[in-house]
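I am still getting used to backbone structure tokens and would like to learn alongside you. Label the sequence line and the structure token line clearly, so we can match residues to local backbone shapes. Go ahead whenever you are ready, and we will take it from there:
>
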Amino acid sequence: MDRKFNILILSIAVMAMFASCKEVDPLAGMELGEMGIQSVTAAFTGEVYENDVNAKFSALPDADGNIVVEVPYYYPEESDYEVPEALLTNMRVSASLANGSYIEPSLGVMDMTQTYHITAYDAADRTKEYTLTAKITKLKGCEITSFNVTSGGALYQGIINPGQKTISLMCPLDELTGCTVDYVSSPHSTVSGNLETIRPGDKITVTAHNEVDKNEYTIAFAVPEKIGYGARVGSAKNVWTKYFANLGVTLSSADAPMRLAANGDVLYVLAGGTNIYSLNRKTGEYLGTLAIPDGYTAHYIVSDEAGNILFAANSTSGTDFKVYAMESIDATPVELISYSNASYANLGNIRVTGNIDEKAVVVANTDGTVSGLAWQINSGVADSPKILNTGWTLSNIANGCMVAATSDIATGVFAFGYWGVYDLYYSRDMSSTTVAVAAPASSNENNNCLATVTFNGANYLAAGIGAHFSWGYVPQLLVYDITNPNQVTSFHAVPYSELNVGGFKGVTGATSDVLIVVSEDGYYMDVYFVDANYDLITCYEFDCIQQ
């Protein structure tokens, strides 16, 4: 056959093939997911709110596409500052969008007293219409978080069951008369009920500031049932988070290191061995600045399970290392430990586990080939120290932390630090070591603070991981069950995404601390964490109440 004729037939066939093809929709047959706006956030602007991560408010679209950002009537909510409408006229607005969606017009700094019409689009040519505005609304909170009764000279601490809405008082009487009630409720809520004479079955009503939302609590004279072991899974809640800048405290390099202690309802932050910042440990309210007792030097501070406050100064070779104890912050310090430091370039960075009036262990770091020293305390008297030859060596005693597993030195010690590896170590015999928890490194962890405590028959360790720089998986707060120290298990982890929202400040250098406080009645375990590079101090609470 002629070659030209073959080519002609082939060309006709190809043309016919293309002519028979239909245009195919690449999205045909695909299951399309959600599109459009998932949420909107509006934040106050201006210098006063520049470092305030809480000054932003989010809203979700309703079924009709209406998005109303509710701005609280008071801000901060616990303050008496009424938000003026003028603050809404200059808000920074952003949206979270479903994958593949975009919106017109775009958002930015907007007058949120106005109503905006927003259209969302996606690649499938779908559209959604939204209206967006903001309004000042009265507060909705109507919870009781603390309820203590004083009657006849006795104090009865209320155990609150938020699920069952009960307040249990461990009282053997039929009624309490002449009562003084100290309670904490949601900001600007109203508490009503008979608070002078209290009987089982009485009702306490909490009405929100908006006068619509309410909760009713029932008083019981009973010992609340505890779960059989440790803290209740799922009970963790963030009681409060504060930023020093918003407490009126401006941190600087002089505030490092920072160390925590608690006595009663007050949390103390020793900063740089100079100032002691005090906060209400139930609410995070800043109470003021205190001075170190006259004639003493304190680089480190900590408190035991009875609320005794221990402090110590760095000890260089050839000096005496002393640890002092106080029953309260204004009590006269009493010498607990006196040790002639003839061998170590530096000795300090103390931790305590237990109650020094009964049984406790105090551990101090060194910066030499010996890792540290541990003292068993019995009835306020310290035994001769045991030497930790674990190989945990630090170039700076504040770059790591060692803490006893329990109040008995025979149960061993835990440690971690900024050594280039980030594992949590355990040593039972003060010599050989094992890796209790292997941790991946991101070259930014500041593993320098641990705390241990016994709670409802279980032993817990809290590990605070602070930040050296503005990147990495930090800060983090981790709580482990160490009842079996040879088989440590994770109990609760606060992710860095929940803690680093305030932004990196980096003015103090890497300094952080962690402290665990068990309530006198044994129903609550509060874990406090401070990270100065993120200007952050926070409280997480756990309970052992049977729900």
User: Anything to note?
Assistant: The chain has three domains: 37-137, 144-221, 237-543. The chain is about 5% helix and 45% strand. Helices lie at 3-20, 496-499.
